Amino acid sequence: MRISSDSRVVLVTGAAKRLGREIALACAKAGWRVAVHYRGSEVDAIETVALCADSMPATTLNESQFHYKFQADLSDEAATRGLAAQVIAHMGRLDAVVNSAALFEHDAPETFSYAAMQKHLASNTGAAILLAQALHAHVKARGDNGVVVNMLDQKLWNQNPDFLSYTLSKAALESANTMLAMGLAPQVRVVGVAPGLTLTSHMLEDDKFQALHKLSPLGRSSTPEDVCAAVLFALTNSSITGTTLLVDGGQHLMKFDRDFSLM
Q: Model-level pTM?
């Protein structure tokens, strides 16, 4: 398979590292031209762009035509509104958005504040809605269609009081899936993907992560490959909108009193 400079373009937010990078690479391998969004991790974003070039199908054209990095602070409304415009100006079109970037800072009912809630809602909910709005305007003017994939969290179906503002922001985004799917149809489909425990972090030792990863009805939670496969399925299946794919090995069916990182 070869791709050309008019091939589909997907904007992946938070694509500089971790799961966002894995999603970007999977999209590149599937033949998408990838707009790599980052906030502050420019070096990592440059590496993601290079890895996307290595992952894409064969092409005789300059790899810089296919993948590029774009900086924006998604908590800033003006910067978020400008992000899609930058992608379209540089890459010529925009066909899909995967909202993977997320602020994930701890608070609880005892420490909740308006400031924490507003910060999470702006980055995790508002930005995804603005990018869906921009995609809709673009594909409608072009006489085409597009798709938005919103990365959610199995926590929404298995709640605990940890990371209260983060969870509220993801719950709002899950509700927005329904409203956006209704309001932006037929030009834009909107699909959620909700992973379980997928990657470790500085808050988990490796042996602890491995033990927690096995806590699911299927004996393991999601892997990056599982999540990427679900994202690609959502991007390409033209009959899916207004729903969420839970990719967590069934962890949402179990009761956890604390967040994984605090267990």
A: 0.93
